[in-house]
Amino acid sequence: MIHFVLLISRQGKVRLTKWYSPYSQKERTKVIRELSGLILTRGPKLCNFVEWRGLRVVYKRYASLYFCMCIDEDDNELEILEIIHHYVEVLDRYFGSVCELDLIYNFHKAYFILDELLIAGELQEPSKRTVARLVAAQDSLVETAKEQTSSITNIIAQVANTASL
Amino acid sequence: MNPFSSGTRLRDMIRAIRACKTAAEERAVVRKECAAIRAAINENDQDYRHRNLAKLMFIHMLGYPTHFGQMECLKLIASTGFPEKRIGYLGLMLLLDERQEVLMLVTNSLKQDLNHSNQYIVGLALCALGNISSAEMARDLAPDVERLLQFRDPNIRKKAALCSIRIIKKVPDLAENFMHPASSLLKEKHHGVLITGVQLCTDLCKVSSEALEYFRENCIEGLVKTLRDIANSPYSPEYDIAGITDPFLHIRLLKLLRILGQGDAGASDCMTDILAQVASRTESNKNAGNAILYECVETIMSIEDNGGLRVLAINILGRFLSNRDNNIRYVGLNMLMKAIMVDAKAVQRHRATILECVKDSDASIQKRALELVYLLVNESNVKPLTKELIEYLEVSNQEFKGDITAKICSLVEKFSPAKIWYIDQMLKVLSEAGNFVKDEVWHALIIVISNASDLHGYTVRALYRVFQASTEQESLVRVAVWCVGEYGDMLVNNVGMLDIEEPITVTESDAVDAMEVAIKCQRLGLTTKAMALIALFKLSSRFPSCSERIKDIIVQNKRSLVLELQQRSIEFSCILQKHHNIRSALVERMPILDEATFTGRKAGSLPTAVSASSIIPCNLPNGIAKPAAAPIGDLLDLSSDDAPPAPVSSGGDFLQDLLGVDLSPASAPSGTSQSPKTGTDVLLDLLSIGTLPPVQSSSSAIDILSSSHDNKAPVANLNGLASHSSLSANATSPASSAGMMDLLNGTGAITQKHEENGPAYPSLVAYESSTLRMTFNFSKQPGNPQTTFIQATFTNLSPNVYNGFLFQAAVPKFLQLHLDPASSNTLPASGNGSITQCLKVTNTQHGKIIRSSIDWKLVGDQSHYPSIILVVFEYFG
């Protein structure tokens, strides 16, 4: 199982964290600090696995971002690399050639997509299209709700204006 | 949007934070935002609750505290709209974890949402439950999740399946409820449901043997068929990765088959065909294919034996090892570790490749490979493999040296075919990476050298050569110094020359030079220098021609600021100047160190130093007390010193003990020529002859003592230290030490034994003479048996007033002594008054000390008034 997912920029800034195993806030900060020290210093040609506290961290760098997933010793590291790539492809499809800035300003979207991909540290959907479709459907639900509210607030505002006149 | 609202949009806040140039600026922006959000929370602002929470999440990711937003998540989850719930659940998963009690409050909302008519809201609830559910929530909501496993929409079914995994992991008792619904998921066509269903079955098998049996009986054929279909399926763009249809499903199916096939020949049989197909037909030029092969190999290795398949699997691993991709090589090594348990011979075939991997530039691969090599070594290949590893040690980078050194040392020790080989290899390791070697390792080497009596000459010459080449590696220097001290004569005379050796010419002064280098070298630590001093001291008798020079070198250290060196140098120069008659016996070679005791000790079979050293030395007929096992115990003391204050000083004790070992038998000859005198002395302590019935104090001891009269306190302290450390090293039985005291002082030392938890502690006249009486009163506080309070009362029985009366005490290391100030320092004459002083002795050793004895010594000439009384407490366990 995946214990946590981290997205760290090359400067060591955290862009996304998702914890599937219980870590207290203090531990989380420590884990992030430890792992960014470990991973960001590794050379480009080395393997994508780091042994850490009896677990393995699989990481892959895409442009300026490191995608890291921490797994048990007996999990399949190569598959995790595929899952990371799977996530990146879905992000890419969603944002249209995704970049770090997209993930900064729309970090909640990145989380929503991840939630359609992983639950309880396990993969839930192997099809990129299905993930994209589900996220889009939920986004449109939000849009509709927004439009409704704004139209209602508009009406109320208008009513209030006329009343005051 | 809302004309009445204040505050910035999420995007603006992120922009403002990103625009900050310094951390302080960022903190200010965040503080301002947090203040605004708190205000909004207090006003119970509804319109912007989700925006505020989104901001909080961003702030949380930056590492600022956001606990005040937790209740907002709950409020958002409880609201009706989808957008609010979506953000609310996200915040819940991000800001909270399962251990927070706030989480319990959300159970009810979750239950409602799991039954919501909008399937996306059901999905949100399932996702949150799957990611952060606690055991209580899992128990409460399990029936709802179980029901959702049959929901009409497959996207809910797959979420419910993963949520079930969390539930059964938290509450394994619930596993049987999920068994049947899970098995029906295996028949699904939708890949998401299938993949999660297989995963659920795998986890069920892990927590429940009942489920394992159930799936074994009912599902194997279905799973094999699914795997065959997926492996043979034509190109399907939706699930295709690098030409393979849904590798994720492949991997999960293989994993479940592995669990079902493990330990069940029938089940294993069912899957051999498909495993062979997957292993032989999967494309291995892309990562996805290799991931499947990797999983397949693991399954083949784990299920019941099928020779043909295993060959196939090992071959795949061989290909992995020669792959250029580091990832593939890493997992190959990883898998070989598992394969070695199954088929060690097949793994041995890849030894050369594995050794290459130890030298890889990638730390992860190095570590894996080294561990694998370690498992591969056996008696037959230890020589070539060690050679390779040592060669690599020379070029490896600093961080890796520690690991690799530890492994080599342990291999050499475990599989060494001959002592000479062991010594050779250890010398190589020490000269390459001596600074990475643990103390136990070079101690063990010394013991092996000491036991290999035919190799003494060879070893000392070899060590001398490497020492000449470099003094960089401290533990090498230590071993070399020790050997030169012990076997210096063999070095010079080329004794015990082996055929393989090249003859070397070392003069006596060369050997002394080497020791001088060790003492003077700034880089080397105190332990090494102290060892070198002892070596020189020993050489002084082996090389009479150099004894003047040695004396000079030793004398130079008299002014050393380091107490240990100063003390040693004073003691040694005393012996050199005034005790020619006993010197050669003092510096005799160490008795052979007992290997069995050492290894037993290392394994922890001898619990404490006390138990090893309290063996009463046997008195031989000729009056020489030969310490039987005790000195070895002392020597070993260094490895399990109970409370060493600092590594350096424990090393110092080690040496002291080493010396004690050597000196104790040697003191006998002088005993015959000297008559007993009153007053114990430092030298006696130094020589550790507490066990000798006829004890003498030699003239030099008097010298030292008289000097202690000249400048009282510091030297007396030194004396105290000397006697204290040697006493702690030297074990005497209470009875024999009492006997010694009688002889020494003629005034009757009292050895008091009392049960530690005995109810009363009788007071005790610790010392009485015609001039002074010293009484001890003992007490203990209830509930604190480690601490003993001793009130000492001194009465002057002589007609003279004692001025500047000073009482001092020393204790072994495992005791703590607290000495309160004395009531006065003037002791009126003729018993007209007394001085009292309180001592607090705390026993820091956890073991039970059943009895204790007190040894004490009076320092000073009794015809004068005693200015200093030195008491040494010693506890026997």
TrEMBL record, chain A:
Its main location: membrane. It is found in: Cytoplasmic vesicle, Clathrin-coated vesicle membrane; Golgi apparatus. One of its GO terms (molecular function) is clathrin adaptor activity. Residues 1-140 form the AP complex mu/sigma subunit domain. InterPro entries: AP1_sigma, AP_complex_ssu, AP_mu_sigma_su, Clathrin_sm-chain_CS, Longin-like_dom_sf. It is a peripheral membrane protein. The keyword Protein transport applies. It comes from the Eukaryota. Keywords: Cytoplasmic vesicle, Golgi apparatus, Membrane, Protein transport, Transport. GO terms for cellular component: AP-1 adaptor complex; cytosol. The keyword Membrane applies. PROSITE patterns: CLAT_ADAPTOR_S. SUPFAM superfamilies: SNARE-like (SSF64356). GO terms for biological process: cytosolic transport; intracellular protein transport. Belongs to the adaptor complexes small subunit family. Adaptor protein complex 1 (AP-1) is a heterotetramer composed of two large adaptins (gamma-type subunit and beta-type subunit), a medium adaptin (mu-type subunit) and a small adaptin (sigma-type subunit). Subunit of clathrin-associated adaptor protein complex 1 that plays a role in protein sorting at the trans-Golgi network and early endosomes (TGN/EE). The AP complexes mediate the recruitment of clathrin to membranes and the recognition of sorting signals within the cytosolic tails of transmembrane cargo molecules. This is AP complex subunit sigma.
